[in-house]
Design goal:
Layout lengths: L1 H15 L15 E3 L14 E7 L6 H16 L3 E8 L2 H13 L6 E4 L3 H8 L6 H7 L8 H7 L14 E8 H6 L8 H13 L3 E4 L6 H15 L2 H6 L9 H15 L12 H9 L3 E7 L19 E4 L14 E4 L3 E4 L6 H19 L19 H11 L5 E2 L8 H16 L4 H15 L6
Parallel strand pairs: 2-3, 2-4, 6-7, 9-11
Antiparallel strand pairs: 1-3, 4-10, 5-7, 5-8, 5-9
Helix pairs in contact: 1-3, 2-13, 9-11, 11-16, 15-16
Length: about 450
């Protein structure tokens, strides 16, 4: 009866929770492949243990493929075990379907989610497995990079999502274009804007951005507030304890507004999806592309055109006067995590999880990906030069990392900022108007989530 009451409350809550934007990180390849029509229902018999994973990153990506390969290996010694994947690479559609499944009492056994306000509601209802406890129980907690685990935690230090990736973010740039125009890689935001103006004057679009998914544009809004205050501004403003009209907030808003006003993003950016934005950069149609190191293998010589071979560089998030964070502090994340259904999580699932995490670091890294574990490939394993460069860059990263804003706001404010951010870039909303709308939304919505 308690469970039914909880689920009834959740169904009502989901009706008023708007679809969240996505954070993080990870590869947003547009894949909509379903290996089962319904990821919510658990199909089990006495002879079969079927675990269904509803995945937000596409079933053909390196994470899904690595997990599936290890699951197949596990099945050899556990013939009654089966892992089934369904994926929707379009994040808004994924989130909408996930909430529908949960509201219908059809929560998948495993599913991708950020440690956001919605996930916090599920935790409070007792629907998710405590992953910090599970990792400690199976002896894997200390195998992770500390930041990979910190990223998955709620403000109180609890952790209900499992990281399967790791990456830093920065600006990828076209080396030849920069050299031809005598441009140096920017180390400050002023230098970034000066370089962008030079590119524009030479009829080159400065930056490619995925505007359709919103979160990449939201990163630009967060750049200067992070440099000025670390994560202090976002942690306060999300609760209404700070205002967007304050210096840190206005610095971010005016920076993004100026990028839009000067047309430094590609034309039609708001309708450009993840893959299309990346392809613009790889085609040499834009000079820069802000994204994470999960793109590294897509930029390796064997995967790009002859014109782009050995032509892709990387520079860190610029800094500014008055910065309180170091140049090697920037966005670092372990991507969208994996949550487990507390109702269906059992000893077999835990046994599989332990087997998975023993095999995963090496298998995933051999695919040219950066693992959330403290793991380094042996020198006998050959990897592309760009992978080695980015691995070295990651080793030099700081200990303060920027948190994605789309995982911090309450759902209603998150939805609004996603709608309004394009208007700010396109000039349909002034910086002052944008700040006022955000403050008003937070005042109305935040008290329901942050008490």
């Amino acid at each position: 009866m308690k469970t039914l009451k909880k689920l009834g409350f959740l169904s009502l809550a989901v009706c008023v929770i708007l679809v969240l934007l996505a954070g993080c990180g990870g590869n947003n390849e547009k894949t909509d492949v379903a290996t089962q029509s319904d990821p919510g229902k658990v199909e089990q018999t006495d002879k079969k243990k079927v675990i269904k994973w509803f995945i937000a990153r596409g079933v053909d990506g390196p994470i899904a493929q690595t997990v599936k390969e290890i699951a197949d290996e596990f099945t050899k010694t556990h013939p009654n075990f089966q892992l089934v994947l369904e994926g929707i690479g379009d994040r808004p559609s994924y989130l909408q379907k996930l909430r529908t499944l949960i509201a219908s009492n059809e929560m998948p056994d495993m599913f991708d989610t950020d440690p956001d306000a919605y996930a916090d509601k599920l935790v409070k209802l007792g629907l998710l497995v405590d992953m910090k406890k599970v990792l400690k129980d199976i002896g894997k907690y200390d195998d992770y990079r500390p930041i990979a685990l910190q990223y998955q935690q709620f403000a109180d230090g609890s952790m209900y999502t499992l990281p399967l990736e790791y990456g830093i973010e920065g600006f990828w740039y076209n080396i030849k274009i920069f050299n031809d125009l005598g441009l140096k890689t920017p180390t400050t935001f002023d230098e970034l804007m000066t370089a962008s103006e030079t590119l524009k004057k030479n009829k080159i679009t400065p930056m490619a951005v995925d505007g359709k998914d919103n979160w990449p544009v939201l990163r630009y809004l967060a750049f200067k507030p992070f440099r000025l205050t670390g994560n202090d501004f976002i942690e306060k403003v999300k609760k209404g304890e700070a205002s967007f009209t304050e210096p840190a907030g206005m610095a971010g808003i005016k920076f993004l507004h100026e990028i839009g006003e000067k047309k430094y993003f590609q034309q039609g950016f708001s309708a450009t999806d993840y893959t299309a934005a990346r392809d613009l950069f790889l085609a040499g149609k834009t000079a820069m592309y802000y994204m994470g190191t999960w793109e590294t293998m897509n930029f390796a010589n064997e995967n790009i055109s002859a014109e782009m071979k050995d032509n892709i560089g990387f520079f860190k998030l610029p800094t500014m006067d008055g910065a309180t964070t170091k140049p090697n502090d920037y966005f670092i994340n372990s991507g969208i995590g994996v949550a487990f259904n507390a109702k269906t999580f059992d000893s077999t699932t835990q046994e599989f999880l332990k087997f998975l995490l023993e095999k995963y670091p090496e298998a995933y890294t051999k695919k040219g990906q950066f693992s959330p574990f403290k793991f380094t490939l042996g020198t006998d394993v050959k990897m592309p030069e760009i992978f080695k460069r980015m691995q070295k860059e990651m080793e030099q990263s700081g200990t303060t990392y920027a948190v994605p804003w789309d995982t911090r706001f309450d759902p209603a404010t998150n939805e609004l900022i996603g709608n309004e951010i394009s208007a700010l870039v396109l000039g349909a909303s002034s910086p002052e108007e944008f700040a006022k709308k955000m403050d008003a939304a937070i005042k109305e919505n935040a008290p329901k989530y942050f008490k």
